[in-house]
Amino acid sequence: MSRAQNPRDATRPPAADPAMRGEADSPALLLEAACAFARAAGAVLLEGYGRVHAPEKKGRIDLVTEYDRRSEALLLDLLRARFPHHEIVAEESGVHAATGAAEADASRPRWYCDPLDGTTNFAHNYPFFGVSLGVEVNGAPVAGAVYDPVRDELFSASAGGGAWLNGRPVQVSTLDRLEDALLVTGFPYDVREHPERHLPLFQDFLLRAQGVRRDGSAALNLCYVAMGRFDGMWEGDLSPWDMAAGTLIVREAGGVVSGYGGEPFRLHGRRIVTANARLHPRLLEVVAMHSEANPPE
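Request: output the structure for the sequence above.
Response:
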């Protein structure tokens, strides 16, 4: 689909027939939908990129723009039309039960939507933001897509199907020495209130690694780990929609994803450490030195 096309008209599929749910819920078709819908929402963001914005504040440093809402509205429309029997968890509007259902039901396929990951970047016209869509079935991730509309880069993966960038397979780096690694992280929104929870760990990695970047989009950061642009990542206080697609893409690219203590990754666990299998233990060793960065959940 050309990015110049109207995304609402160009990608709206017919509503799914409930009798065809088995086919509609296959990983291949879920991945196809995730990719198409992420591109459509990315076209909305591209319309707003470069303009002067007047973002609202959801918190002290947490922003939301008109384009967060426009992108999310489009994603909700597209998902409702194609998958009315699915659950949706969207960053701005929360949990949406399946059409006709009285309440949410986690046993249904569930989409996690971040309509604009990197809102602060977008609001300042800094070109690092994207759309993230991940879907799980029976609590397990099955498909995900992250789209960077500025670079026209679409990262995608399905369970057991590998990880891809614009149709080309990608894999994590092979570095095993922390001093040679380029790492990435982000600070949570309470960094001003509790700098002691975040800055010592950041400083430690800054002194140990070849370099550390902080560029404001967890979803894209995960994808950059998946393709080896970054060698590893750690971050605390993330939301499920930040990670649902990116963590699957990293795993399918051969990476390891865990919590801060090395425990199995949980989508609602909020803290993440990821790298290739050889470098991942090195990151965990540093995190373990900073108990203030790993308080009990």
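The longest strand covers residues 140-148.
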